[in-house]
């Protein structure tokens, strides 16, 4: 869990991490860099569970991943950094990935449905709108929205 990469820490804090810390009772004065406090608040069992989670999951015709994938790269050869951070190269692509990629990471006002991807990120941490999708593989997605 601990990292020496302060840029990742600051990016995380700016994208909902600060609110996450507050919800866990952790106050970081001036955004100070203290991943050990986060690790302690989460506990070893939860940190181990988080580290064990896969970066992607295939279910039927869908590939679920945080940010997206590198177009033209086989699914089993995707780089973890792309699955967590990719944006334009993936978002601007109309490449058939072999699966419909369901992702977040890039908040939009409404869910985005394309032939090769579905973005369900409506920026819940700053808009108060959480979107989920019901996907059955045959019909158009049904979107469910919860407003805080």
Strand order across the biggest sheet?
A: 1-2-3-5-4
Count of DSSP helices?
6
Number of strands: 7
Please give the largest β-sheet: 5 strands, mixed
Envelope shape: globular
Give the low-confidence spans: none
CATH superfamily of the largest domain: Metallo-dependent phosphatases
Which CATH C-level class of the largest domain is it?
Alpha Beta
- What is the CATH architecture annotation of the largest domain? 4-Layer Sandwich
- Going by helix content, strand content and strand pairing, the class is alpha/beta
Can you tell me about this structure?
The protein is of the alpha/beta class and 148 residues long. The chain has six helices and seven strands. The chain has helices at residues 6-23, 35-42, 44-52, 80-85, 88-91, 124-127; strands at 56-59, 62-65, 100-103, 112-113, 117-119, 129-134, 142-147. A five-stranded mixed sheet has the order 1-2-3-5-4, with no helix packed on it. Strand 6 (129-134) and strand 7 form a beta hairpin. The radius of gyration is 17 Å and the shape is globular.
Keywords for this structure?
20% strand; 7 strands; Purple Acid Phosphatase, chain A, domain 2; 148 residues
Note the topology.
Layout: H1 6-23, H2 35-42, H3 44-52, E1 56-59, E2 62-65, H4 80-85, H5 88-91, E3 100-103, E4 112-113, E5 117-119, H6 124-127, E6 129-134, E7 142-147
Parallel strand pairs: 2-3, 3-5
Antiparallel strand pairs: 1-2, 4-5, 6-7
Brief sketch in words of this structure:
The protein has 148 residues and is α/β, with parallel strands linked by helices. It has helices spanning 6-23, 35-42, 44-52, 80-85, 88-91, 124-127, and strands at residues 56-59, 62-65, 100-103, 112-113, 117-119, 129-134, 142-147. Strands 1-2-3-5-4 form a five-stranded mixed β-sheet, with no helix packed on it. A two-stranded antiparallel sheet has the order 6-7.
């Amino acid at each position: 869990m601990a990292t020496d990469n302060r840029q990742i820490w600051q990016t995380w804090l700016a994208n909902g991490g600060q609110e996450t810390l507050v919800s866990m009772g952790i106050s970081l004065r001036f955004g100070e860099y203290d991943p050990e406090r986060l690790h302690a608040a989460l506990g070893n069992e939860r940190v181990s569970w988080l580290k064990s989670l896969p970066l992607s999951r295939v279910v039927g015709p869908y590939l679920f991943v945080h940010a997206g994938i590198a177009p033209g790269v086989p699914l089993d050869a995707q780089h973890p950094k792309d699955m967590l951070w990719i944006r334009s190269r993936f978002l601007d692509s109309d490449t058939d990935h072999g699966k419909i990629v369901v992702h977040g990471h890039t908040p939009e006002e409404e869910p985005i449905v394309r032939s090769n991807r579905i973005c369900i990120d409506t920026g819940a941490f700053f808009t108060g709108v959480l979107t989920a999708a019901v996907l059955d593989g045959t019909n158009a997605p049904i979107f469910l929205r919860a407003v805080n």
